[in-house]
Write a structure and sequence with these properties.
The chain is α+β, with helices and mostly antiparallel strands and 122 residues long. The chain has one domain. Helix content is 14%, strand content 32%. The strands form three sheets. It has a three-stranded antiparallel beta sheet with strand order 1-2-6, with no helix packed on it. Strands 4-7-8 form a three-stranded antiparallel beta sheet, with no helix packed on it. The longest helix has 17 residues. The chain is elongated, with a radius of gyration of 20 Å.
Amino acid sequence: MLLVGIVILMSIAVAALAFGLSEPVETAPTATLAMTAGDCQYELRHTAGDPIDGNRTEFVGVEDPDALAGRTLTAGDSVQLEPTADRIELVYESGDLLGEPRGGRDAGERRAGGQRHRGRRR
C-alpha cells in the first residue's frame, strides 16, 4: 500500500512539471515597426503595440547590435541604425530556460538559453 502511495505522489509531481504548472513562459511583445531609409542610416520607428524592452533585444546586421540597450521603445519612439548587411533583424529574447526574465546586459555580453524571436527587414 505504501508503494502505491509513493507512485501516486511521484506521478502527480511529474504531471505538474510536464503539463506546465510551473511558471508560464513569457512571449515576445506584439508591435508594429516601420523602417525608413536615409542616406547612410535607417530609422526604426515603433508605431503601435506593446513596449519593447531594449535590454532583451539585439539587432543583427547593424553597426551597434545593442542600440536599444538601457531603454524601452514605445509607440512614437525611434532609433537610428547604421546597416552593415543587406538584412536587418531585431531579435527579442523572452527569458531563460526556466521562464525567468533575463536581466540587463553589459555591452557585448550575450546570454544563452531562452526563446529568441526574430523580426526581419530586407
